[in-house]
Amino acid sequence: MAAESSTAVAPHAASSTAGSTPETKASVPMAAAGLQPPEAQIAANAPPASGGAFAEPIASATAVGAPAPAAIPEVTMSAASSVPDQPAAAPEPQEGKATLKLTTRLVDVGVMVSDKKGHPVKDLKQDDFEVYDNGRKQQIRFFNEFTGEAPLAPAPRSAGTPEAGPPEQSFYNRMPDAVAPDSAPPAQESTSTVLLIDESHIGWADMSNARRQMLKFMAGAASGERIGLYAMTTLGFKVLAEVTTDHAALIARLQKWMPTAQAMQAAQDEETRNRQQFNEVHNVADLNSVNGNLKDVPDGATPVDPQLLTMGDNPGRASLIILGGVARHLSAIPGHKTLVWISSDNVFADWQDQQVGIDKSPKQVESFALRAQEAMNDAHVAVYPFDVSQLEGAAITADIQHRNVELTQAAQDAAALGKGSAGVPRNATDGRITAEMHQDVHSTQGPIRDVAAATGGRIVARSSDLAKELADIVAEGNSSYTIGFYPDTVADNKYHNITVKLSGKHGLTARYRTGYLYAKEPTTLRERFQQAVWLPMDANEVAVTAAVDKMTSSASVKINVATADLGMEQRAGRWMDKLDIFFIQRDDAGIHAQVEGQTLGLRLKPSTYQNLLPTGVPFEREVQLKPGTASLRVLVVDENSGRMGSVTIPAQALGGGQ
User: Fold this and answer.
1) What DSSP assignment string belongs to 145-196?
2) By the 8 A CB rule, do 433 and 394 touch?
3) What is the pLDDT of residue 248?
4) Considering its fold, how many domains does the chain have in total?
5) Which parts of the chain have pLDDT scores under 70?
6) Cα(566)–Cα(582) distance, rounded to whole angstroms?
7) In this structure, is residue 408 part of a structural domain?
8) SS3 217
9) N or C: more exposed end of the chain, with fewer CB within 10 A?
10) What is the reported pLDDT for 61?
């Protein structure tokens, strides 16, 4: 269908319309595809001149000088407005050729290996790993080692050589197949480290110390180290500085950044509550929940003190929801990512034992942790919850009036009324010191530990040298691996456990993704398209690569689609297929997507088809980012086979971003 439109698509929405905008240009590079321009095609199909070696008598019904029959173009383009519900045809696999099943899912497993002393281990090979899915050994199809090495600098220009423009950035959705005989060796990729600062749950003293240590870490980081700086707010997250090797710019940004007044107040309220740094409470029953006392209170004696109403709250739940959005954003950044979640025990610890009164509502976070864990794994992110809380010195500062939290004078008078002075409760505990000791021994709650372990990260407890801990985390990320496999069973909508073993390697420990949800595929092609718009991982049934060339106010995106992965059919002497190529601008919230697309009609001559088998089908489009775009996903749909392939490009690579 040829139509022009631009539609906002919400997750799992029914609409999938697309079109081209006046400022967006698309083309098929004829020379690169081995095609001739239309004029040359017409000339090539014209009959030979009269008197030539292969001249034939002109039919009497044909007038002399009549125009030559119109040539059939090999490629046509029209605006894509939808995808079919079902593929046009699903070709049978040809003998001797490997084909991808429509429902095949590639499972990527990030692995970090350490020795007995906790030092990361580099230079392991594919044969050193074994991977099991629910106990069944799987064939490793993809293997890659990530390094922290900076890209090689370009060679110096010789005299007389014109200066080149900015280098193109390349993105792809599939690594070379480790078992294919003609597969190229995988290229080593760099890793990225993102510092996510939780501004709403870190007290000011802890925040000041953490900022100082982060600045020290950045100043000492290797020159080619890729580092990003994000901030978590009460409602989401914001990018302070996208991943870059410009450490001076990162330092300047962190020095300039300040949490909002609202965030600072919320964090300080949590510190005051958890460390019980207030002087008085308003009810006798309140004394059962302060000064280190953890006594249950009868339902009729509900504490009325406002500072105790949120005792036992679990802000970790909201933070885990926000991590899902962070994963969606990081999925567009290529390579392995290490997310250092910088927060405090106000979030990481489990305070449910301090719930008071009748406020016993469930505060479980297990389901939210599982969703965050899966999103991070699909985005190739290892999560390191980093507790920057400092141990308390149990000192009584000038703003604290009493050693213990006490009753207000009015509460004392009410308690003593009719009972004399003996009716006034007296504190017999060690007071705040006991409360602070209780806080210091609260360990990180189980679900957050699970998120770290299941993504290949680890918990970082309180440390006196945060900068060194950050450097150690970066070193681990620079010694990580990714292995991929296709499950040898059908999808069952169940959670599958993953086990990674090191073959013949003793004394080594592996941290890795521990499982995945093996979801069944949607029943129609249109539903699969809507799902592919928002999935953190790219579709890889069709190999797609993209190169980005920034321009003044836009970017040129050159994609290449693997011809061998398409379900092309030979009819009437031509290889025929239809490719729907969509350019989807997505926001970080996973709510809005602007979809534009083109349909390529392919009617390739046998010689052109053979030329495109090793090189792929090229396509080029000029893209202008719309406000609020966080990433561009290029999604290719093969209408013949129903296979899909996509590649995701961060907005920063296109000259945009937050």
Assistant:
1) EEE-PPPPPPPPPPTTPPPP-SPPEEEES-PPPTT-TTPPPPPPEE-EEEEE
2) yes
3) 95
4) 3
5) 1-70, 88-104, 147-168, 175-189, 274-314, 351-364, 391-442, 657-658
6) 16
7) no
8) helix
9) N
10) 40
Q: What is the largest CA-CA distance in the chain?
A: 131
* Residues 346 and 381 occupy one common structural domain: yes
**Could you give the CA distance from residue 655 to residue 632 in angstroms, rounded to a whole number?**
12
- Write down the pLDDT at residue 266: 82
Decide if 607 contacts 44 (C-beta within 8 A).
no
Residues 6+ apart with CB under 8 A from 259: 199, 200, 207, 231, 267
The pLDDT, as a whole number, for residue 144 is: 86
Residues 375, 445 share a domain: yes
**Helix or strand or coil: residue 228?**
strand
Q: Are 254 and 228 in contact (CB under 8 A)?
A: no
Q: What angle do CA 360, 361, 362 make, to 5 degrees?
A: 115
Range of the domain at 356: 192-277+313-399+441-476
Residue 297: both structure tokens together: 């209170």
Do β-strands 192-198 and 226-232 pair in parallel, antiparallel, or remain unpaired? parallel
Predicted local confidence at residue 118, as pLDDT: 84
Burial class (CB in 10 A: 0-12, 13-18, 19+), 576: middle
Which three-class secondary structure string do you get for 113-152? EECCCCCECCCCCHHHEEEEECCEEECCCEEEEEECCCCC
- Compute the distance between CA of residue 175 and CA of residue 335 in angstroms, rounded to an integer: 11
Tokens of 336: 């392995």
Nearest to 318 by CA among 210, 232, 197: 232
pLDDT in tens, 574-610: 999 999 999 999 988 778 889 999 999 999 999 999 9
Give the integer Cα–Cα distance in Å for 639 and 600. 10
pTM of the model: 0.72
The b-or-e profile of 135-153 (16+ CB within 10 A means b, else e) is eeebebbbbbbbbbeeeee
Token code pair at residue 220: 């000492």
